[in-house]
Write a structure and sequence with these properties.
Layout (H helix, E strand, L loop, with lengths): L9 H8 L7 E8 L5 E8 L12 E4 L12 E11 L8 E9 L10 H10 L6 E11 L32 H13 L4 E6 L5 E10 L2 H19 L3 E3 L14 E6 L1 H4 L4 H12 L2 H6 L5 H4 L14 E3 L6 E3 L1 H6 L4 E3 L8 H13 L5
Parallel strand pairs: 1-5, 11-12
Antiparallel strand pairs: 1-2, 3-4, 4-5, 6-8, 6-9, 6-10, 7-8, 10-13, 12-13
Catalytic activity: L-glutamate + NH4(+) + ATP = L-glutamine + ADP + phosphate + H(+)
Keywords: ATP-binding, Ligase, Nucleotide-binding
InterPro entries: Gln_synt_N, Gln_synt_N_sf, Gln_synth/guanido_kin_cat_dom, Gln_synth_cat_dom, Gln_synth_gly_rich_site, Gln_synth_N_conserv_site, Glutamine_Synthetase
Length: 359
């Protein structure tokens, strides 16, 4: 632990967490800011809401988050989903929100709105998404957690799914985050240590349609919050350490009702043709600095050229061996970077496979 980090005295805090809330409920409104980060603020409610629809719209100062100019700074928060709050527990909730500008239009950083429109139009296809979120834990100085100060650990090899001291770092954070996600009804499907030490992965899904983006953003919020309590920083940078160290991705597993049914492979092959024709458009929303990661090495494909193959981890899209054998299932788009926005990824996927819709 870096000496400069500030760790709250959790034993002392325990006393206050146990105090009665006298029937009031705390709702923590969470939103995506103007730089792909998360923000939150809390509101006291008189009673527990049955659904997100019972929650009031709220607002914040968008000039402080890069989401609005100073002279017209109000940005509105519209609740879209609620989750049990694993930190406060009881009836308290976390609230995922969309951001709206004062002119009545979605805020320029509200990428959920367009994605939800295109998904609603094509909901008959029952899109399922499962995303593999990779990330790296840093100490307070910004160096990967557990790495020698100003130096490097031994080369990659023993760390992926590693067990034992010196092979994994911060398992406590990973474990706490896993439990927090389950408590919050996040459909977290698993977790594993990654190839680069201090790098980890968890998966969210399968979730239908826009629900994936909501759940993944909330899972990121939970990760930042948990890591905060342990004095670690989370980075979603796709290539946090240059050189012979694996980057971090956000593999996106996709299926439609047709792909999952008997003979579904035909629809997966059609999808590959459509994806091939829109490589540029997809890469534009698949995360910043992704060209640093997509070098064609370290289990990545080339940044510019689309390719796909069965069981091939060096191609843009991989069809799992088991799906090819069964002739149905799903495909894995390996291109998105760890810092990509799941609303934009899932939105463009539906748009490319099913067609654009006028918002
Ligand atoms: P990998 O072998 O690439 O590491 P993981 O096991 O980490 O794969 O992640 C696979 C993801 O695919 C999980 O999130 C899972 O929920 C998701 N998934 C499984 N089946 C489907 C499907 N039919 N459609 C969409 N996603 C799926
Ligand atoms: Mn104020
Ligand atoms: Mn995985
Ligand atoms: Mn991985
Ligand atoms: Mn994968």
């Amino acid at each position: 632990m870096a000496e400069t980090s500030i760790i709250s005295n959790t034993a002392n805090l325990e006393k206050y967490l146990k105090l009665s809330q006298k029937g009031k409920v705390i709702a923590e409104y969470v939103w995506v800011d103007g730089s792909n980060g998360l923000r939150s603020k809390c509101k006291t409610l008189d009673k527990k809401p049955e659904s997100y629809k019972d929650l009031p719209e709220w607002n914040f100062d968008g000039s402080s988050t890069g989401q609005a100019p100073g002279e017209n700074s109000d940005v509105y928060l519209r609740p879209v989903a609620i989750y049990p709050d694993p930190f406060r527990q009881g009836d308290n909730i976390l609230v995922m929100c969309e951001t709206w500008s004062s002119d009545g239009k979605p805020n320029p950083y509200n990428f959920r709105h367009d994605a939800a429109v295109v998904m609603e139009a094509h909901k008959a296809h029952e899109f399922w998404f499962g995303l593999e979120q990779e990330y790296t834990l840093l100490d307070f100085t910004g160096w990967p957690y557990g790495w020698p100060k100003g130096g490097f650990p031994a080369p990659q090899g023993p760390y992926y799914c590693g067990v034992g001291t010196g092979k994994v770092f911060c398992r406590d954070i990973v474990e706490a985050h896993y439990k927090a996600c389950l408590y919050a009804n996040i459909n977290i499907s698993g977790t594993n240590a990654e190839v680069m030490p201090a790098q980890w992965e968890y998966q969210v899904g399968p979730c239908e349609g826009i629900d994936l983006g909501d759940q993944l953003w909330m899972s990121r919020f939970l990760l930042h919050r948990v890591a905060e309590e342990f004095g670690a920083k989370v980075t979603f940078a796709p290539k946090p350490i240059p050189g012979d160290w694996n980057g971090a991705g956000l593999h996106t597993n996709v299926s439609t009702k047709e792909m999952r049914a008997e003979g579904g492979m035909k629809y997966i092959e059609q999808a590959m043709e459509k994806l091939a024709s829109r490589q540029k458009e997809h890469m534009a929303v698949y995360g910043e600095d992704n060209q640093l990661r997509m070098t064609g090495r370290h289990e990545t494909a080339s940044y510019d050229k689309f390719s796909w193959g069965v069981a091939n981890r060096g191609s843009s899209v991989r069809v799992p061996r088991a799906c090819a054998q069964e002739g149905k299932g799903y495909f894995e788009d390996r291109r998105p970077a760890s810092n990509a926005d799941p609303y934009q990824i899932t939105g463009i996927m539906v748009e490319t496979l099913c067609g654009m819709v006028e918002g």
